[in-house]
Amino acid sequence: MKHQLTKYLLFVLLLKTISGLTGVWRWECEEGYCQKKEITPDTQDTAISLSACRLLCSDASALWPKPTGEIHVGTTLVKVNPNSISHSGVGSEKRSHSLIGGAMTRFNKQLNELRPKTKRADGGKTLEITYILSDPGLTDLTLETEEGYALTVVETSDGRLNATIVADNFYGGRNGLETLNQLIVYDDLREELIMPNDISITDKPAYPWRGLALDTSRNYITVDAIKNTLSAMASSKLNSFHWHITDSHSFPFTAQSLPDLREYGAYTPKKIYTPEDVADIVAHGRECGVRVIPEFDAPAHVGEGWQNTDYVVCFKAAPWQDYCVEPPCGQFDPTKDGLYDALESLYGDMIKQFQPTIFHMGGDEVHFGCWNSTASIVEWMQNQGWGRSEEDFIKLWDHFQTEALKRLYKQTSSNIPVILWTSTLTEGEYLEHLSKDQYIIQIWTTGSDPQISNLLANGYRVIISNYDALYLDCGFSGWVTDGNNWCSPYKGWQKIYENKPATVAGGKNDLVLGMEAALWTEQVDSASVDTRLWPRAAAMGEVLWSEPSNGWREAESRMLVQRERIINLGVNADALEPEWCRQYEESCPTNGKFNK
Amino acid sequence: MKHQLTKYLLFVLLLKTISGLTGVWRWECEEGYCQKKEITPDTQDTAISLSACRLLCSDASALWPKPTGEIHVGTTLVKVNPNSISHSGVGSEKRSHSLIGGAMTRFNKQLNELRPKTKRADGGKTLEITYILSDPGLTDLTLETEEGYALTVVETSDGRLNATIVADNFYGGRNGLETLNQLIVYDDLREELIMPNDISITDKPAYPWRGLALDTSRNYITVDAIKNTLSAMASSKLNSFHWHITDSHSFPFTAQSLPDLREYGAYTPKKIYTPEDVADIVAHGRECGVRVIPEFDAPAHVGEGWQNTDYVVCFKAAPWQDYCVEPPCGQFDPTKDGLYDALESLYGDMIKQFQPTIFHMGGDEVHFGCWNSTASIVEWMQNQGWGRSEEDFIKLWDHFQTEALKRLYKQTSSNIPVILWTSTLTEGEYLEHLSKDQYIIQIWTTGSDPQISNLLANGYRVIISNYDALYLDCGFSGWVTDGNNWCSPYKGWQKIYENKPATVAGGKNDLVLGMEAALWTEQVDSASVDTRLWPRAAAMGEVLWSEPSNGWREAESRMLVQRERIINLGVNADALEPEWCRQYEESCPTNGKFNK
């Protein structure tokens, strides 16, 4: 270690001939873990900070998620000048140019935020970043987009740092930049930015869908809080933001063709998303390497906003327990022809604003008791020669889904993938209603539900959101009664890290597109969205990118660093442990390496 | 209701002859609950906002905690001009003058924050606030200080609003001002501040100790986050901030006499509290009606910072399970004479900085196995003719506590009340070691622990912090292993509201000074301190101020308003329910009035 640091230390000594170190502690790497030690006269020349130690101390360095290919991170650390960073090789194609420009701005800003404001004027080496993209014009992140990259850093003979990122397209390039960012750290002993001068990493994700679902209907989430969420996603290489934008509780989305939906549906005239807000969020998502997928959940989960139509039945029905799963109830009446015209307009507005490559049609928690209690619906069913059994209500639901899908396709191409939540409709006996070429099924039951293997056996692509690990709203107090909420207890990051796709799917399976953590916001709004999501969603990020065979214990030191990284983005990630456990790695766990 | 609103509406119509209302919804009070209704041509003249409805709709209005004496809140609402508020009757005594000045500034600032920035230039009625204090010179909040007040508001014939607050002293006056503040709301339909023009309230707390304990050692909490905590405490009339400032993990406090403690003990050179920080926090606390009580926990819970002394044994001992309850271990060696000199210096620095009226000496979780494993301690005990039984270690502990108390008294008067946590020392057989005139016992076991009745039967004053309701860190993931943390599950606000002192104490008892919620920060830092504390600590606030006989259901509507109030202070209080449930009160609970 001492030998490898020589160059860095010489360089440091050159610049700091008089001033001492900040503080009395240094860190030493012992068997892959960083340990706090006192600075003594003997050690002051070789003393390194915790952030430097973490970079050098294990093969995955401080990277999150862990790269899947070659990882070579040299142990010679040099000082970087954040005011002397250049980016070249950016394509001339306008849209892609602007994407890379955004990613660059983000990169530079993050480095600046690492340093205390009073320490921003010092020098260091120039960093030149060159992008080599095979398809610089690609701007849409689809299920087929290559997200891998190769990153190399070398120091030139005249002391500049040359970073090269080779990738198929912007999304891969951005991931390389994110990795480079994680390798530049603030050294608080010498108060400067440092990085290894010799890096070679190849990397690509194990799964194409690394998602986060956020509900903005039960409670409104501000545009700033959503953009912060996208930034934190970028930092963990999560790539799919599933926006559950409406529900029975409120309708904050602006459908230009149906202005009443927002006027009557928003909680207040300020708790809305204008088309400009959506454009801002979608653009920020792209810069962060994140596709933004809108969900319009139907035929259940509708209510507020539709007051001036006759398309919704059971709205605010009491006691709600008889008509839906939570207040307020509300479900579309599939027998109303006008409904499908309205849906086509709404889909059109959503497609125009989001320009999505995938669409989410919801489809969860349809309550047959609601339809069964509505005389006109029952009469319509009788006129079709149907009864009132579960099978008959499935026919009604199928009628809705078939007609709604036709209208979606009128506003998109017919091969846009459509996602539906698991439900009675996706159970074995009724599955035939859904084409496996058209639909991707998002699983929200438990990780051991036999429905999962049935879906896979029948050739359906799936996204896994098993609530027993990936519902981030669980574990807080009840809200329709006392006690704790329905999916308690709280799901810790360790549980999420151990929730591997191959385990849930009964073996590695290409039909598993990935996973998605979900934050339902009955008991969350902008004040707590950060602490609920982070750093737990980052744990899932590594599971999906790196497909680690190790358990949470092996990932713990890096997880603590990743949490600090998210904090540095201005996102209020929850603390996982006393800072002491990060300063003395592996001294806290009950059977830790330094607790024996 | 319509009749009572006439004056307000006339006044509104006078100012708003052209402009319409903002939004399409109004609220109506039905059987004590506010319900959202559409604005129609018939109702637009009498339409009121949710905040106005809540003020008028029930006898406790939107007040939190509910006043304990007379409550008369008139139903004529008038517009207030926040730029025309005067305060008079402020005493000339310098220190008390500055306290009231601080409370006034806080009051004015909060009103301004209620309004959107673009709507701050409009008119309204002048509000003149007069204080009548019997003892304006009182500046220390002791266990005997009167905190009650009488608040009246009348409208003069020339249209000014006269508010009078009668109280014994600043602390009572400040509480009256807080109540007045809660009765001034922002009407988002007409975009103005409004209040009732006729108020008469008398009020005083049921318990003198309404506390919050915050740990700043396991993780550092910024000065700003602590000041925000004090502001939110003020808003719920909580009055005791118990600062668990040090522990074995870190020592961020600046003891001027023992500078090494902070230099070696702080996590980083920035994660410290300077004497100026402490002064700032203590002064802010006073303005908020909150006494700031320092805890120096000993003889266990010490470690980092004491490296350059030989007073701590078992420090960082491994496996920690054998020597303490969580890493890192560390316990004072009571046999070292130098220790007591150091303690006297430290106590002196704390007394100088905090000027407290009560001191907390900690005393929890002493691990006899640690002392028993230290050869020099065992030898010392043998020289006293003692063995190594529990009783002998109790003697050693008693020796420590006796000597430490002597040194504390050297720095204070001997009648400063001292608090100790429950422990082996406070159990029946050993209780004789502690004088009930000197010590107050803080109970942190379960609410059904027989130790509680034993302490009360023996005449000890107690503060209740039963962990099965009042530990706000419970319910998250483990940190020394996986699974969830030791005191899971999460304690919801309903549980806290039902945790009444008289129930825990087996009947109303004057020896119960009050309760204290505790936030241990192994898994919390500045990023999440707000969401963990609020609004749950406010639920306890009402329990202690109002001693309500009702359950949480009756308090729910006001609790949701109080949560919004804390958000308006810039504090990230957790959301409890969908905003829908606040807009349609009593429609969400499973057996709610509007869910039948």
From TrEMBL, chains A, B:
CDD domains from the UniProt entry: GH20_HexA_HexB-like (cd06562)
Enzyme Commission number: 3.2.1.52
List, alphabetically, the InterPro entries matched: Beta_hexosaminidase_sua/sub, GH, Glyco_hydro_20_cat, Hex-like_dom2, HEX_eukaryotic_N
What is annotated as the active site?
365 (proton donor)
GO annotation terms (biological process): carbohydrate metabolic process; glycosaminoglycan metabolic process
Q: Please provide, in alphabetical order, the Gene Ontology terms of the cellular component aspect for this entry.
A: plasma membrane
Q: What Pfam families is this protein classified in?
A: Glyco_hydro_20, Glycohydro_20b2
Domain Beta-hexosaminidase eukaryotic type N-terminal residues, every copy: 63-183
The alphabetical list of record keywords is: Glycoprotein, Glycosidase, Hydrolase, Signal
Give the catalysed reaction(s), semicolon-separated.
Answer: Hydrolysis of terminal non-reducing N-acetyl-D-hexosamine residues in N-acetyl-beta-D-hexosaminides
Q: Name one GO molecular function term.
A: beta-N-acetylglucosaminidase activity
Domain Glycoside hydrolase family 20 catalytic: residue ranges: 207-547
Superkingdom in the source lineage: Eukaryota
What family does the entry list? Answer: Belongs to the glycosyl hydrolase 20 family.
This chain's protein is named: Beta-hexosaminidase
